[in-house]
Amino acid sequence: MLPERLREFLNYLEVIKAKSPNTVEGYKIDLTIFFKFMQLYRRKCPSDTEFADIPIDDIDDAFIKTIKLTDLYAYLSYVEKNRGNSAYARARKVASLKSFFRYLYTRTKILEENPAADLETPKTDKRNPIYLTLSESKELLEAVDDTYRHSKRDFCIITLFLNCGLRLSELCSIDMSKIKGDILTVVGKGNKERTVYLNKACIRAIEDYLPERNSMEILDAHKDALFISERKRRISKRNVELVIEKYISAAGLDSTKYTPHKLRHTAATLMYKHGNVDIRSLQKILGHENISTTQIYTHVDDEKLREAVNLNPLNEIE
Fold first, then answer.
1. Which residues, 6 or more positions from 38, have their beta carbon under 8 angstroms from its beta carbon?
2. Total structural domains in the chain?
3. Is 299 tagged catalytic?
4. 189 is catalytic
5. 55 and 150 inside one domain
6. Are 102 and 8 part of one and the same domain?
7. Out of 133, 149, 150, 232, which residue is the most buried by the measure of CB atoms under 10 Å away?
């Protein structure tokens, strides 16, 4: 059982802030670990209690009001040393703590001071996105041939990933009724609708797939879904992951390295490197709320940087 304030906070994230189920679950896990640590840290349970068995349902407002900034740093030290959390994992936990205590301070107003207000985020190195090169992308598409069952569907899935930069959840949620010519409307993060423009390759792939789709038996509740599984229903995220894994392996690529999300990275990178798409347009295409999220793609093109240095006129002086 979760503490009452944590349950209220998670409900607030879902209902008011319209956070995705994955985001809400992430906050739930982080804050559950925090409260279990606090029970252990404050010696509210025997020291030999298994961490997973530490109860937190008795944590009330009085307990929460005693939490100080030093407790938060002790928690971050614990997850680093005892749970092996990387700087990235600790940074996410800091974000969870800041959001939770800000909610208690500004929304419920049970706190007179916010203990997380001055909590610093661990410094992390910038990660460059993992993506397929242009030639590898072509190899992946060529790996889909007519010997595979549902080859038209699978080719269409990969084509949309590589050309539109869709999220996995967005691709699975595509409805037939949301396709109007070259305009596709998808439901993105936070249940926000966004417009995706389909190029010729995408339109052709969808048209080639439709006869296969229309010949399938589809359950009434899933009649509007574009991508249909063997179970006669809208394709699941796990099903798509397996489809991508199969063709990544068939193309001779590393199936543990390239996931549907890496294909989204690939689409963004190809548009930025080869399509001369500016960063603001790329932000809209990908449905990023903040431009800082999109800026990771400005760091991927080492060849352009190398070329720029070599073009320096002083390069010719010996």
1. 44, 59, 63, 67, 71, 75
2. 2
3. no
4. yes
5. no
6. yes
7. 150
Is 50 within the bounds of a domain? yes
User: Residue 52's domain is classified under what CATH number?
Assistant: 1.10.150
Residues 229, 180 share a domain = yes
- Residue 107 among the catalytic residues: no
- Interval 160-212: pLDDT, tens: 999 888 889 899 999 999 999 999 998 877 777 888 889 999 999 999 999 99
The CATH number assigned to the domain holding 165 equals: 1.10.443.10
Catalytic residue among 102, 189, 233, 262: 189
CB 286, CB 296: distance < 8 Å? no
Cα dihedral 81, 85, 89, 95, rounded to 10, equals: -30
- For residue 115, is it within any domain? no
Closest residue by Cα to residue 38 from 87, 94, 79, 84: 79
Please indicate whether residue 237 is annotated as part of the active site: no
User: What pTM, to 2 d.p., does this model score?
Assistant: 0.63
Question: If you write DSSP's letter for every residue of 256-297 in order, what string do you get?
Answer: TT--HHHHHHHHHHHHHHHS---HHHHHHHHT-SSHHHHGGG
Please say if 297 is a catalytic residue: yes
* 203 and 292 share one domain: yes
Nearest residue to 66 (alpha-carbon basis) of 12, 27, 110, 7: 110
- List the domain range (segments joined by +) for residue 67: 4-106
